């Protein structure tokens, strides 16, 4: 059975250990792996810039620099004009690779001497300073070189080997800056720090080079799995012709405080468009008319302080869109927290839990959808702390609240409290960076829960649907795309069998 190498994501330590074990299992030496890595990078350059383009290869002290030294030799043999700027090699393989470059007459510029003048006439800059495993902040001269490379991003095509220098390969955080690559050729496996957080601003196109040892390496269970289209189509099959609304659940959305009717309306519309059989809104009396008038298919109830009758008929509850943090909102949170069923906690409902947490009922399943600010409040830390290690924050929320959790942001992360691995969504668009997008997502989740999508997959499927709907809605431009523009896209995506039938 073939393996989709791009669907599995690993930590730096997993790659470091697994690479060595896989190389032994495949009877491949580390020197051969370095040769293969350099050859993969040369292939990426050849696809972008034909001979006789001018290359500037910047090498660090370790094996990442060794990859750069080997690439310099291969590129020169292929007909490219090659310059090398480097610091003294320290690893055994890097020392040998550097000597091989010098033996063929290659010249070397000291890294500290690199200046803007050396970039004149250069077509391709290759960053081979630090790869997998960098966790400390960059220091001179490397931080200066990174900034120098980035100042020429408009003039040169920049390729990073394995991981852009300065980017933490486990967290995706720049320390404190990183090379802004047009392309990253990463070795063996995709790393966590390439697919979430700030990484999307630094990696450019990511090319995976498995170096011929994947059959042995990928026996290692991944830390993250990439959410893919087939997960959606697997769980959203064609409906039976005898279906009725009772087959597809009743979503109750609790929110729409005074002056915030729009958030509950967006969540309700998303739940309808994603296939919920019935959708009710429990809102403040000041919001009832606006919501009911805007979407007649919604059953809209003004509630003062009692949700009992609505909770009794609900299949699943979404609480938070436009809820606010008033005494009225707190009363509703207290009631939902005692309800024994699946509850999606979003927005101010999460903020309310952060202030005064409740114990989750045994028969209830809680699903959290925090953005980094809400995650920080749940954990009692800062937004910067969350950004510094998104996967750790995700895991901690799952453990603290025994909640299925979706951490929003570039490279959305999803985790179950009952499993070690997690999901990452590599789809999405900056078009989603607007108020109301999260309300749409909460409605999507509510609809999927009502239709009995398994808990272990529901957040992953919702994240993919929301992200791809955002991409599709932004085809005419990211700026100005509205959350309401996602509704038609969501309707198409939750009917994958019809998309296939029409060739879409």
From TrEMBL:
Instruction: Note the coiled coil stretches, chain numbering.
Output: none
User: What positions does the domain YjeF N-terminal occupy?
Assistant: 15-219
Q: How is the cofactor bound?
A: Binds 1 potassium ion per subunit.
Entry keywords, A to Z: ATP-binding, Isomerase, Lyase, Metal-binding, Multifunctional enzyme, NAD, NADP, Nucleotide-binding, Potassium
A Pfam family in this protein? Carb_kinase
Say what the protein does.
Bifunctional enzyme that catalyzes the epimerization of the S- and R-forms of NAD(P)HX and the dehydration of the S-form of NAD(P)HX at the expense of ADP, which is converted to AMP. This allows the repair of both epimers of NAD(P)HX, a damaged form of NAD(P)H that is a result of enzymatic or heat-dependent hydration. Catalyzes the epimerization of the S- and R-forms of NAD(P)HX, a damaged form of NAD(P)H that is a result of enzymatic or heat-dependent hydration. This is a prerequisite for the S-specific NAD(P)H-hydrate dehydratase to allow the repair of both epimers of NAD(P)HX.
Signal sequence annotation: none
Supply the name of the protein: Bifunctional NAD(P)H-hydrate repair enzyme
Which annotated residues bind K(+)? 64, 127, 165
Q: Which reaction does it catalyse?
A: (6S)-NADPHX + ADP = AMP + phosphate + NADPH + H(+); (6R)-NADHX = (6S)-NADHX; (6S)-NADHX + ADP = AMP + phosphate + NADH + H(+); (6R)-NADPHX = (6S)-NADPHX
- GO molecular-function annotation terms? ADP-dependent NAD(P)H-hydrate dehydratase activity; ATP binding; metal ion binding; NAD(P)HX epimerase activity
Which cofactor is recorded for it?
A: Mg(2+); K(+)
Q: Which SUPFAM superfamilies is this protein grouped with?
A: Ribokinase-like (SSF53613), YjeF N-terminal domain-like (SSF64153)
Sequence positions that bind (6S)-NADPHX: 63-67, 131-137, 162, 263, 322, 371, 439
């Amino acid at each position: 059975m073939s393996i989709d190498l791009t669907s599995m994501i690993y930590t730096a330590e997993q790659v470091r250990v697994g690479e060595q074990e896989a190389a032994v299992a495949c009877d491949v030496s580390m020197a051969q792996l370095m040769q293969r890595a350099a050859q993969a990078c040369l292939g990426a350059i050849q696809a972008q810039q034909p001979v006789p383009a001018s290359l500037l290869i910047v090498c660090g002290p370790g094996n990442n620099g060794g990859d750069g030294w080997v690439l310099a030799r291969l590129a020169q043999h292929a007909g490219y004009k090659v310059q090398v700027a480097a610091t003294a090699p320290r690893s055994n393989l890097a020392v040998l690779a550097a000597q091989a470059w010098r033996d063929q007459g290659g010249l070397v510029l000291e890294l500290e001497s690199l200046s803007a003048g050396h970039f004149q006439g250069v077509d391709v800059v290759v960053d081979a300073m630090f790869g997998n495993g960098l966790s400390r902040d960059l220091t001179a001269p490397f931080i200066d070189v990174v900034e120098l490379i980035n100042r020429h991003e408009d003039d040169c095509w920049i390729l990073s080997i394995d991981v852009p220098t300065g980017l933490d390969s486990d967290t995706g955080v720049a320390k404190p800056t990183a090379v802004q690559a047009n392309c990253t050729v990463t070795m063996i496996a995709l790393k966590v720090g390439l697919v979430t957080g700030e990484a999307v601003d630094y990696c450019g196109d990511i090319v995976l080079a498995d170096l011929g040892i994947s059959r042995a390496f990928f026996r290692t269970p991944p830390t993250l799995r990439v959410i893919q289209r087939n997960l959606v189509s697997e769980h959203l099959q064609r409906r039976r012709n005898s279906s009725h609304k009772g087959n597809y659940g009743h979503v109750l959305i609790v929110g729409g405080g005074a002056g915030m009717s729009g958030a509950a309306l967006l969540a309700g519309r998303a739940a309808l468009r994603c296939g919920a059989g019935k959708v009710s809104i429990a809102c403040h009396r000041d919001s009832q008319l606006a919501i009911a008038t805007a979407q007649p298919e919604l059953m809209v109830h003004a509630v003062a302080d009692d949700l009992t009758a609505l909770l009794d008929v609900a299949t699943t509850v979404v609480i938070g869109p436009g809820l606010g943090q008033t005494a009225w909102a707190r009363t509703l949170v207290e009631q939902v927290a005692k309800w024994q069923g699946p509850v999606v906690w979003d927005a101010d409902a999460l903020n309310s839990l952060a202030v005064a947490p409740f114990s989750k009922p045994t028969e209830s399943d809680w699903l959290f959808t925090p953005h980094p600010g809400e995650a920080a409040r749940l954990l009692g830390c800062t937004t910067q702390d969350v950004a510094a290690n998104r996967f750790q924050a995700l895991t901690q929320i799952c453990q603290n609240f025994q909640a299925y959790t979706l951490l929003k942001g570039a490279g959305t992360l999803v985790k179950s409290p009952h499993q070690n691995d997690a999901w990452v969504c590599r789809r999405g668009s900056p078009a989603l960076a607007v108020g109301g997008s999260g309300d749409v997502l909460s409605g999507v989740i509510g609809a999927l829960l009502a239709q009995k999508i398994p808990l272990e997959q529901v957040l992953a499927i919702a994240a993919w649907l929301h992200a791809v709907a955002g991409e599709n809605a932004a085809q005419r431009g990211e700026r100005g795309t509205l959350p309401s523009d996602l509704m038609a896209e969501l309707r198409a995506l939750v009917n994958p069998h019809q998309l296939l039938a029409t060739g879409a």
